Amino acid sequence: MNTITKTLLAVAFLFICSIYRGSAQVTPTTTGVNLFCQGSDLTLPAPAAGEDWILRYSATQTTTPSTGITLTNGNKVPAADLNTGYYYLTSKKTEAGSCESEMQEIPVYVLKPLIPAFTPAGFCIETPLEQTATVDNPETSITTLAYQWYKVSGGTETAIAGATSQNYTPTTASSTVGTTTYRLKVGYLIGGNKYCPQTIDHDVTITAKPGKPTITVGTANGTAAAVTF
Hints:
The protein is built from 1 helix and 14 strands. The chain is mainly beta.
């Protein structure tokens, strides 16, 4: 392979890399990604005394971000303005004519809220019924979710041991006649950690087993009466 061919291949490789870098988008598993639940602010540490933060944004990875971000109180991006993408942070002294620092790249992914639901299924205490849930997942790239069922009493939730699946069937031993509030909590499972949980509560009616009948034989309608003849 001659020198000209090697040079052309190197140029082509760099060109392809630049195209890839220019189109790379943030995903939940991007290296160094900062995950935010929708509705959360991005709050930076306060800048050093005598300095200001300068923040820019790009939907894709770039070396020349052009969208300037106005920071609230000098260090915050409000939830309404926070988007998935790359933020580029620099600092600059407040004196006129000061230089701007090199950029720090901050990849951000904003997780949309899950929407759980379940239809309460009342049951006799001796024959518990499955509580069946559904979850609307708006993040198509995240297929693994974390589940936990709870009992709620007086505003306090108590996790049910082992109830970590989408559906839950109570046991007779853990049930009490009356009304029990069950809660399902579901969140995204990313890198072994749980994020942005959403909950749904429902009251479930649990009835007692009826008592054994104690009628006296001979008093039931239709019973043959003793006769003489």
